[in-house]
Amino acid sequence: MSDPADLVREIEVLGEKLGEAKASITKRFIGQERVVDLVLSSILCGGHGLLVGLPGLGKTRLVDTLSTVLGLDGKRVQFTPDLMPADILGSEVLETGADGSRAFKFIPGPIFCQLLMADEVNRASPRTQSALLQAMQEKSVTVAGAAHALPQPFHVLATQNPIEQEGTYPLPEAQLDRFLVQIDVPYPDRDTEREILMATTGTAEAQSTRVFDAVSLMAAQQLVRQMPVGEAVVELILDLVRACRPDEPSASDIVRDNVGWGPGPRAAQALMLTVRARALLDGRLAPSAEDVAAMATPVLTHRMALTFAARARGMALSDVIDSVTAQVTRIEAAA
């Protein structure tokens, strides 16, 4: 186990480096600091992120910038209904050698990279989605019975368009659980949009610079897991996740009346990791209750489902999560 003083120094140094990375990212992806923080939190935890937003909000630009700043080999795949698993994973081809011998050779697909952008992931068929999500979980690809390890680190940032649902295959809730966080990308405010106009319509654009590489990023991911978490924060995470399950005794009326099923243990694991990353990005040495509240919606939204009646009433999962978070936080504060 690391010496506490050494751990503090390492966390402080990493915090400064992350500040440089954020500054470099925001040169090209202007504003939207919460989106940048959530994406960086996801990667610092070694996880994958699902970006949900309308076209033209800079999702592709963000992923491209992240590849540069984090020093990762990045690739982009445009998902379409006719995309097959082999188009992503790779395939074996029969190759004839100079001596006339013939043998199968594996040709790696675009998934063999360190940062994959899966653009409009819900346009691919369930079969193709499953192939991608299996690779995300197992960090390897099996083709013709042979396993092929993916590069390390390996992260997927997938995008979804929330309005054009015709011709799409929405990801099943059980598969959405593979994503560490769901990141909603909103419209920029007026001042940010003015800044974007001035920065991107001239003769030259600002360029991002590399801050990390694969080795230093993996070291940062290990350091995040060593950050201490207070007992009160651990109990708050458990209380929050369990309170979002409609069959739990601690569930409130809003959960029982509106939630079909709640988050599983993987949600608690995701919260435990992401609150550490958020604290680190904010320059703090340990997470607090504020971090739990801030990460609740990104971590829990895609791990819960509303009942049909709740959807018919226009209820939103974010409203349910906000209500439960406020209630659990008040109880913890009172205790």
From TrEMBL:
Pfam families, sorted: AAA_3 (PF07726), AAA_lid_2 (PF17863)
Entries under InterPro entries matching the protein: ATPase_AAA-3 (IPR011703), CbbQ/NirQ/NorQ/GpvN (IPR050764), ChlI/MoxR_AAA_lid (IPR041628), P-loop_NTPase (IPR027417)
Keyword annotations from UniProtKB, A to Z: ATP-binding, Nucleotide-binding
Domain annotation ChlI/MoxR AAA lid: ranges: 254-314
Family: Belongs to the MoxR family.
Superkingdom as given in the UniProt entry: Bacteria
Organism: Kangsaoukella pontilimi
GO molecular function annotation: ATP binding; ATP hydrolysis activity
Protein name: AAA domain-containing protein
Domain ATPase AAA-3: 48-181
